[in-house]
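Figure 6 in text form: structure in, sequence out.
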């Protein structure tokens, strides 16, 4: 359900608050941390939401392509109607929308990505839809890792710190760190940043 709250919008799913348009710092950080230091970035964005992350990706000069996977057709319809200017990013020539389950897309999308940004449900530790746990377990992280080029970066939005999830990331990725984003109420939002191992160039003999 999309609900207007004054000048802002809120998304409610199964009676649980998911997101709104009031702030957006953590969604922008999700993209910023994925792109930082990279060039010619092909990005996979899991979840359209209220278009905050998509707008952040479009504003990054390094981003050349964004593949957006959104499972819920109603969310796409909101972007094209009620959200006005926020939804115009779907018309950007660099943006390719797939109305599909990200879990399926990870098995079928062609090629690899320099950055994968995951903002699905309320993150790994507070799921509204239990089936989304498959994205955050060991097998799901293996699929996400397999979609990254060597040295590519996965960023994951979480509604709170999750030590178990961070541990799974550390077992799979070369480097992992957590970026806390303070919010007005409750625990900090957290962006997990995980980097795939780069390709090592063999040493040459003198």
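Output sequence:
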């Amino acid at each position: 359900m999309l609900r207007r709250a004054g000048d802002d919008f809120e998304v409610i799913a199964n009676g649980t608050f998911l997101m709104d348009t009031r702030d957006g710092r953590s969604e922008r950080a999700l993209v910023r941390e994925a792109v930082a230091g990279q060039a010619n970035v092909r990005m996979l964005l899991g979840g359209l939401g209220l278009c905050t992350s998509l707008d952040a990706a479009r504003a990054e000069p390094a981003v050349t392509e964004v593949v957006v996977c959104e499972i819920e057709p109603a969310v796409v319809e909101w972007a094209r109607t009620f959200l006005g200017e926020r939804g115009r990013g779907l018309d950007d020539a660099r943006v390719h929308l797939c109305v599909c389950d990200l879990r399926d897309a990870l098995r079928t999308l062609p090629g690899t990505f320099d950055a994968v940004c995951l903002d699905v449900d309320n993150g790994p530790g507070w799921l509204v839809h239990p089936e989304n746990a498959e994205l955050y377990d060991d097998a799901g992280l293996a699929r996400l890792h397999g979609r990254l080029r060597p040295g590519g970066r996965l960023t994951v939005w979480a509604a709170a710190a999750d030590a178990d999830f961070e541990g799974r990331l550390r077992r799979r990725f070369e480097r992992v760190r957590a970026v806390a984003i303070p919010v007005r109420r409750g625990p900090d939002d957290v962006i997990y940043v995980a980097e795939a191992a780069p390709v090592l160039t063999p040493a040459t003999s003198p």
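Caption detail: Strands lie at 2-5, 8-13, 16-20, 41-46, 63-70, 95-99, 113-118, 148-158, 175-181, 189-195.
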